[in-house]
Every structure is written in structure tokens, then in C-alpha cells.
Design brief:
elongated, 408 residues, alpha/beta, 8 strands, 8-stranded mixed β-sheet, 16 helices, Serine Threonine Protein Phosphatase 5, Tetratricopeptide repeat, Rossmann fold, 49% helix
Amino acid sequence: MKKRVLKILTFLIILGLVKVELYGQLANKIEMTNDNQLLGLGTQHIIKSDILNEERPIIISLPVGYDNSKANYPVIYVLDGLQNIKHTVGTVELLTESGLIPPIIVVGIESLDRTRDLTPSKAGQNIHGGVGNTGLSQSGGAPKFLEFLSEELVPYVDSNYRTHPYRILEGHSLGGLFSVYALMENNDLFDAFIVEAPALWWNEEEMTEKAKIFFKPDLSLNKTVYFGIGGGDGWGMRQELIRYINVIKRNNPKNFKWLHEEDGDEGHMASRLLLNYNGLRFLFSDLGINEDLIGNFSAKAFLTAEEQLKDKYGPMARRPAEEYFNLVSVLVDQENNLGAITVLKSASEAYPRYIGLLTYLAKLYERTDQKNEAIDTYLLGVEVSKRYQLGQEDDLQIEIDRLHEIQN
């Protein structure tokens, strides 16, 4: 494994990727207002909700390149959206640039009364955090809020934006409680969940009691769920989540992909950024190349797997660049240059700014006596170098001239 990593790093250095592209990507420009304020977090919209009988603000952040494509995109719905929009958008953009997740639309749902909207039942007198008298009179609005998501918000987003059917719900604390409730109450609405430090203590852990009925070994539950919590979170959170997870362990449904972990030593509020990052990584972990495909490579199987990812996550889905290089390294070791060409062609389409992918592809074309294809690939590299001011046009032209001389 170490030998393979070293070879990949060597390829990257030779191709200039470490210095220019892979670890120091060209920054996508962020629009600015007339008074030089950076934009980029999204646009606020006001949804008139008949179900909630109010006007609900939401923030919609579109992925880079949305306006210049015709692609459709998965959507992540983030509860407590105003509170979480900054770190969520930043994390999504970082992971998207790295190919660790596909480009996605972020919908931040602003909270107006989170105790009302995110709790599945009325709070009793001895509610955690209360004084023990009358409870919380406005609690118990989760059924209506879930109806708002299903009947008003999701249709609004789907009708106004190019959305892919793959949807994610993310919530922290009471939002995590609501996410668990939504999973068990309406599991057709979302395909995946990021459940962060859920307040499963609510009403004497009623969601855990419900889980004992919901989760069954013979249930087919084609969902992906990340259950995360900071290692420094306190009473009312960690042990309650463990008890919920134990129900799943005893009654694990078929096709249910899930992970429970305690991350770092962060407390309840500080853990949100880390849990968002790790949750997204887990949800899209199948963007990595399967070991079976590496060990038993065929061009047909590889291309089929690429199309399956696009079907699942949208046409802009791609694997991390390191995954492509890992597979290319194996294929070159096996002297399967044609297979390596297939992988590099997909990689160069997925990462059009990575000029090193094109130069390596051109070298493999030449090695397999496809000199015209090599010349065409170097010419494409010249265009990429000019477009992104990479300064490699002269070097690429030398290779083009050399191949022309060989042909003549």
C-alpha cells in the first residue's frame, strides 16, 4: 500500500499536480456586491406556508457552475439553516472541489420556533432543561413541520431548481431529534440523513421506544444515515444515542447503511462543523473505487460503475482524483495501458482543470502507438493551460512538435 501511495505521489509531482492543481486548486471566483461584499452563501427566499400558517425564510445555495450547466443536483436540507449555513456551504464546497462529494444544492431552513417545529410530541412537566412545572406548551409541532417539508418546501425547490431525486436531511440537537423522527415517520421523503447530537432524551426517549417497533431485520430500508456526536457532549445526549443505536444493532434492517461515531472531544455546539464534514464523507463514501474493481478490472465494469454513480447522485458526480490515480497506478503496474487510458479519459472529463491528467493520458496514447490521439490530447492541454493561465503551453507544444516529427 505504501509503495502504491509513493508511486501516485511520484506521478503527481511529475505531472505538476501537487504544485499546481491537486493540492492548490484554482479558486472559483465568488461574486461581489457593488460595495465589495463577498457573496456565496446563498439567496434568501420567503415561502408562504399554508400548513404552518406563516412565511418561512429559507436560504438556497447553488453549487459552483449551476448557471452554466443543464445538470440536475442532489439537495441537502439543513435544519436551523441560518445558524448552520456558513459552515455547511464552506464544507460542501471544499468536499465538492476534492471530489469527495458530488455538487449539491444546499437549502437552509431558518428556524422561527424550533421547540415547536422540531419536537415530535408535547413536552411533559419534567422536561429536560425546564423548571418542572407546566412543560413547553408550544412543543409537538414536528408532524406539521414534516408535512410542510413534504407538501410545500420540497415541491417548491424541485419546481424552481434542477434537482436530482437524491435528498438529504441534516439536523443538530433538536434538529437531530426531528431527523430521527422523519426517518421513521416518512422514510420516502429523504434518501439519507446526517443526525448530529440528537436530543433523544425528549419525552423519556420516546424515539428510542418507537425505534423498537420501526426497525426490523426483515425490513428493507434503502437509506444511508450518519449518527454523530462530539466526544465531549454531556448528559442527555451520548448515552441516549447509544441506546437508540443498540436498537438498530438488534434489529438491523436489510440494505440499511449507517454509522455511529463519537468525534473528537468537542462539546454539543462546537461539534457541528466536524459532524457535518464527517457525515457528508460517510454518505458519499461509495464515490471511492471498490477494491473488487481494482483487483478485477475491466473497462466495461469501470464505465458501468461510473454511470451508476451518475444515476445515483446526478451527472456531475465524480470520484476523488486520488481514486482515479490509485487505479491508474495499479493498471500501469499490470501493463494494462489501455485500461489506464479508459480511467484517465474519465478522470480528465471529471477534472477538466487538471492538466496533468491530460499529459499523462497523452503519454499513454503514445506508448500504445496512438500518436494522433496523443497530439489531440496535448492540444486540449494547451487550451486548458491558456484558459486557466497555467503557463504550460510551450512545454506542451514541444511534445506536439516532437510527435509530428516522428509521424513525418
